[in-house]
Amino acid sequence: MVAVVLVAWALAVAPEAGAPAGTFVPKTIELHGRTWRYSVYLPPGHQPGQELPVILALHGAGARGTDGLRPQIQGVVTAAQAFPERYRAVLVLPHCPPDQSWSGDVADVALAALERTLQEYGGDRRRLYLVGQSLGARGAVDIATLHPHQFAAVVAVAGRHLAPEQAARRLKSMPLWAWHGDADAEVPVARSRALVEALRAAGSQGVRYTELPGRGHYIFDTAFRDEELSRWLFAQRREG
Questions:
Q1: Where does residue 34 rank: exposed (0-12), middle (13-18), buried (19+ CB within 10 A)?
Q2: How far apart are CA 82 and CA 78, in angstroms?
Q3: For residue 6, what pLDDT is reported?
Q4: What is the pTM of this model?
Q5: Measured on CA atoms in the order 153, 159, 165, 166, is the torsion positive or negative?
Q6: Could you give the 3-state DSSP secondary structure of residue 19?
């Protein structure tokens, strides 16, 4: 049944006609006494050792599972497939198990998968990006808060951010772009507004916020297919 659903989703968000296809590579990693499945997306024409940007992408609650496949269908991935010229990057796609979130062991696995990908495929460590949608948006902010010097930028789409002041203290120097629909019935828009307000109050000069009028929760494709978002994201570089 899962395979059927994945095929249907893939057809619904297939790359635009003429767009070259990238490659999904299934992976496993051993951590905390268990085996975790994830995927790595390599852009068209990828060559080993290239110093490309690397995106750690955290999916939302609806894609939770253990097969390592469902994270392949999320906003940033389908945007990368549709617009490979904009997303010339390697994507790391960890899988959050059912009834869990991007914290604790699951966050450790995501970071371990990122490091393994850098070792296996190379990548520009000054251009490591952390992006997430819904549950993954909250996870992206939380992980960046714990590791503020590892990532060059964060994109958080429709996230339920629970500790904005704490995040702001650690991320005030981090470029961050939050998106939310003002008619979101699943995650109140107030969650993103509070995060942005806390960052600005902390003195952040790198925070951006896009609020889409009349839009609900599922704005993920709109955000990641926005040309300015991809241009902004890849312009960010970590110093040192």
A1: exposed
A2: 6
A3: 38
A4: 0.92
A5: negative
A6: coil
Q: What are the Cα distances from residue 17, in Å, to 14, 21, 82, 83?
A: 9, 10, 8, 11
pLDDT at residue 14 greater than cutoff 60:
no
Tens-digit pLDDT profile for residues 129-166: 999 999 999 999 999 999 999 999 999 999 999 999 99
* Residue 163 buriedness (CB in 10 A; 0-12 / 13-18 / 19+): middle
- Residue 79, Cβ neighbours under 10 Å: how many? 24
Helix (H) or strand (E) holding 7: helix 2-12
Rg of the chain's alpha carbons, rounded to an integer?
17
> pLDDT band at residue 19, thresholds of 50, 70 and 90?
low
